[in-house]
Amino acid sequence: MAENDIAIEVRNVTKSFKVYLDKGAQLKERLLFRKRSRYEERKVLRGISFDVKRGEAIGLIGHNGCGKSTTLKLLTRIMYPDEGTIKLKGRVSSLIELGAGFHPDMSGRENIYTNAAIFGLTKKEIDARINEIVEFSELAEFIDNPVRTYSSGMYMRLAFSVAINVDADVLLIDEILAVGDANFQTKCFNKLKEIKAQGTTIVIVSHALGQIEQICDRAIWIHEGLIRAEGPPKEIDLEYLDYMSRKMQEKNKSEEDSSDSEPSEDEAGKRWGSGEVRIRKVRSFSADGSEQNVFRTGEDIRLTIDYTVKKPVKDAVFGFGVFDMNGVQCYGTNTRIDKQPDINISESGTAEILLRNVELLGGEYNIDIAIEQGEGIPIDYFRQAYRIQIISALGDVGVSRIEHTWNLKR
Question: Is the pTM of this model over 0.70?
Answer without folding.
Answer: no
